[in-house]
Amino acid sequence: MVTITGFETRDVRFPTSLDKTGSDAMNAAGDYSAAYAILKTDGGFEGHGMTFTIGRGNEIVCTAISHLADRIKGRTLDSLVSNWGQTWRHLVNDSQLRWIGPEKGVIHLALGAVVNAIWDLWAKTLNKPVWRIVVDMTPQEIVNLIDFRYITDALTPEEALEILTKAEEGKKERIQEALDSRAVPAYTTSAGWLGYGREKMKSLLQETLSKGYKHFKLKVGGDVAQDRERLGIAREIIGYDKGNVLMVDANQVWSVPEAIEYMKQLADFKPWFIEEPTSPDDVLGHKAIREALKPYGIGVATGEMCQNRVMFKQFLAAGAIDVCQIDACRLGGVNEVIAVLLMAAKFKIPIVPHSGGVGLPEYTQHLSTIDYVCVSGKKSVLEYVDHLHEHFFHPSEIKDGYYVTPTSPGYSVEMKPESMERFGFPGVEGKSWWKSEEARPILEGEKI
Ligand SMILES: [Mg+2]
């Protein structure tokens, strides 16, 4: 019997804006950050969860985490996980906190950290990685993880059960593939940041190609002539006829007609999809873009800033997207993600999780494995960015173009204490990088 006795939050920020890692048309200079939750227990276990931000405002998410974590203080782990649907509802149902959402924005980012910390704690007590807990469940047990409020018009518990029961066929073989690290092919964004120079981009493309990657994503949306040049370079390296796939990502910079016109000018580079062409809330806009670009063979993807399962329901039911990009902590943790995996399976849309951020590949490797083994039964691809993994005890890893399936107990985002201290914000004098001279250009520079 494990009881949650308390919690801590940590504001951890990595100064990635210095070298433009993560830069795109909307996010010019991000400092990859974690709003971090640690659940303390009486049993020697800790539950670690985090949510991803890109710097300023991370402390606001930490404050929201404290409010939510307080709702499970004093509860036993058993009482939380024995009826997960109810626990999830309890966490989103504080009648006062709900006002600052509901189920969206900062409070929902914080929910992701807390829910995922419970999963991490549970997995550690069971001595299993998170993906394995779900894969070992019966279809009915998986259905019980979900709060179906607001989505039963698109997916009933009975339909969810049917999808999961159908996926039982071949599951054993897919588990074996997971154990052999052949379940989740990776794609790379490492070369594609908008702020990287041409030579850095070329060498990163060549390097990732030689490592076995077949899918490459580039940021676009700054300037059409420059994007044509960058995509031209990328196609020169990866070719058109070698089975390599190119994707592009605009990070919401365009209005709908602009997105359509801009993408027509990139059509000859044959991208599989345009990611986040416009506002993440614009279901009808995505649908219009999808229809306009269909004759050019370009699909539409979105999801990394999709607020919750209700928004995903609309994107899927309206036929507004070709690719569903769930995020491990923008959604309210594992439970809400599984609700979206099931809706995507019903509407036959592939899951390609968003993973460009610190800790995200550590999380999403579990989610893609769950999707392949027990929901869709179909192999997809999962983003991998090769930044900041050294700060985690169990970093995600790529081998021969596939994610190495995690085997350590937990949800893989436990960060090393020395990393939390060194990059803690605002940080302790003499210990944190943020108190050093090196940090001054960020702290005192223009906030762009
Ligand atoms: Mg993106």
Describe this structure in words.
The chain is an alpha/beta fold. It has a domain at 163-404: TIM Barrel (Alpha-Beta Barrel). The chain has helices spanning 58-69, 77-81, 84-92, 105-126, 130-135, 139-143, 157-166, 171-179, 198-210, 224-238, 256-264, 283-293, 309-317, 333-346, 360-375, 417-422, 440-444; strands at residues 4-13, 33-41, 46-53, 186-188, 215-219, 245-249, 273-275, 299-302, 323-324, 382-384, 398-399, 402-403. Strands 5-6-7-8-9 form a five-stranded parallel sheet, with helices on one face. Helix 7 packs across helix 14 (333-346), helix 11 runs parallel beside helix 12 and helix 13 packs parallel to helix 14 (333-346). The radius of gyration is 21 Å and the shape is globular. Residues 249, 251, 275-276, 304, 354, 356 line the site of magnesium ion.
Q: Which word captures the global form?
A: globular
CATH architecture of the domain at 163-404: Alpha-Beta Barrel
End-to-end CA span: 49 Å
Overall strand count: 12
CATH class (first level) name of the domain at 163-404:
Alpha Beta
Strand order of the largest sheet: 5-6-7-8-9
The main β sheet shows up as: 5 strands, parallel
Please state roughly what percent of the residues sit in beta strands, choosing from under 5%, 5-15%, 15-25%, 25-35%, 35-45% or over 45%. 5-15%
Query: How are helices and strands ordered from N to C?
Result: EEEHHHHHHHHEHEHEHEHEHEHHEEEHH
Output the CATH homologous superfamily of the domain at 163-404.
Answer: Enolase-like C-terminal domain
The secondary-structure class comes to alpha/beta
Helices, by number, come to 17
> Which value, in Å, is the CA radius of gyration?
21 Å
CATH topology of the domain at 163-404: TIM Barrel
Report the average pLDDT across residues: 96
Q: List bound small molecules.
A: magnesium ion
Helix content, binned percent? 25-40%
Low-confidence segments, given as residue ranges, are none
Organism: Periconia macrospinosa
Domain Mandelate racemase/muconate lactonizing enzyme C-terminal: 198-296
GO biological process, one term: amino acid catabolic process
GO molecular function: L-fuconate dehydratase activity; magnesium ion binding
